[in-house]
Each structure stands twice: as structure tokens, then as C-alpha cells.
């Protein structure tokens, strides 16, 4: 899990029997006088590789949160490519790549050619999560969206029927009038 996240994400993971390990390493130092907008708080590819090498059997999910809408496109692209290549070489125990986009909906992103003012997820993510709570820039006073990448290379693309079955058990909301 990304080093900066809300307690609810940790609680959800633990509820499902997962152990959470945050890669809480400081971002690389910025050169003196740098004009960069922010230090990246996305774990680096090297951090992900080091952790996966030392915990090969136990890692099931890599969850990256784009905190404050800061999508480190270059680093995230490297991470997504690495995880997908790793999954291809060992299909028996694929790692699920989840992108927490709760704060990045309005972030500029090069993958969104139709609307460059909207971040709609990385094309190599397996699952992308968006939430629209009261503190969000794009609020609907609650709710969220789960995008399941239907690309055949996604080892989890077959989860859609299970997701729909779970969703059918949720209470129905009244339509807006």
C-alpha cells in the first residue's frame, strides 16, 4: 500500500485477511532550487522490486494511491509495466495492481486524449478506484466507481461476474427526482 492512505483502506484490507505493508520510504531529495511542483510520494519501482523479491509468496496486491492528485506518470508506468510482466512470467500467482484514484479525478493526464483535464486510470492498472465523498473535489456526497480493466492481459479481468453478483446484494438506492 502507498505510504499515505486513509485508515479505512487498511481496515478493509485487514477485514479480508490481508496484511498491509506500507512502503514508507522518503521521496528522493529534490535538488536545491528545484522548480518541481511536488516530490513524488509514489513508491519507486526499485522499492516495489525490493519488497516483492523479499516477500515473493506473500504479496497479493499492490495498491498505489495518487495522493493530492499527484500522479507520478513515469514511475507509475514503470511499476505497472513491471507488475504485468511479472504476472506474465508467473501466471500461477498474479499480483493485483490497484490504483486508488480518489483524489486524482481532475488531474491532467496524457492517457486521456478525449479530455486532458480528467484522469481516468492507467491503461495497465487491473483495478482503479474513484470515490466521490463530501471532501472530494468532484463530490456527489457519497459513492464511488470501480473500474475493472477488461484487457485480456489483466489476470483479474474475469472478476466482473463476481463483482456484479456482490453488487446485486447491495441495497437499491431510490432514483433522483
What does this molecule look like?
By secondary structure, the protein is an alpha/beta fold. The chain has one domain: 3-Layer(aba) Sandwich (Aspartate Aminotransferase, domain 2). The protein contains 4 helices and 4 strands, in the order H-H-E-H-E-E-E-H. The chain has helices at residues 7-15, 45-54, 73-89, 160-168; strands at 61-65, 96-100, 127-131, 144-148. It has a 4-stranded mixed β-sheet, covered by helices on one side. The mean pLDDT is 77.
**Count the helices. How many?**
4
Q: Strand arrangement, largest sheet?
A: 1-2-3-4
| CATH H level, superfamily name | Type I PLP-dependent aspartate aminotransferase-like (Major domain)
- Strand residue content: 5-15%
The ordered string of helix (H) and strand (E) elements is HHEHEEEH
Percentage of residues in helical conformation: 25-40%
Low-confidence runs of at least 5 consecutive residues: none
Query: What's the total number of strands?
Result: 4
Mean pLDDT: 77
- Which CATH class applies here? Alpha Beta
Could you say how many structural domains there are in total?
1
Question: Could you write a compact summary of the structure shown?
Answer:
With 177 residues, the chain is an alpha/beta fold.
Amino acid at each position: 500500500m502507498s505510504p499515505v492512505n486513509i485508515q479505512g483502506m487498511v481496515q478493509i484490507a485487514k477485514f479480508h485477511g490481508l496484511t498491509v505493508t506500507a512502503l514508507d520510504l522518503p521521496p528522493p531529495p529534490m535538488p536545491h532550487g528545484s522548480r518541481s511542483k511536488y516530490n513524488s510520494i509514489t513508491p519507486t519501482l526499485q522499492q516495489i522490486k525490493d519488497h516483492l523479491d523479499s516477500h515473493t509468496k506473500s504479496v497479493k496486491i499492490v495498491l498505489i494511491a495518487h495522493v493530492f492528485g499527484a500522479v507520478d506518470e513515469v514511475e507509475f508506468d514503470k511499476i505497472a509495466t513491471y507488475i504485468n510482466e511479472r504476472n506474465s512470467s508467473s501466471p500461477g500467482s498474479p499480483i493485483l495492481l490497484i490504483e486508488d484514484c480518489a483524489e486524482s479525478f481532475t488531474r491532467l493526464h496524457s492517457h486521456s486524449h478525449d479530455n486532458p483535464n480528467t484522469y481516468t486510470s492507467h491503461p495497465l492498472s487491473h483495478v482503479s478506484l474513484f470515490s466521490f465523498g463530501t471532501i472530494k473535489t468532484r463530490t456527489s456526497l457519497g459513492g464511488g466507481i470501480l473500474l475493472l480493466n477488461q484487457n485480456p492481459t489483466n489476470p483479474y479481468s474475469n472478476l466482473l461476474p463476481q463483482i456484479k453478483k456482490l453488487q446485486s446484494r447491495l441495497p437499491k438506492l431510490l432514483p433522483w427526482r
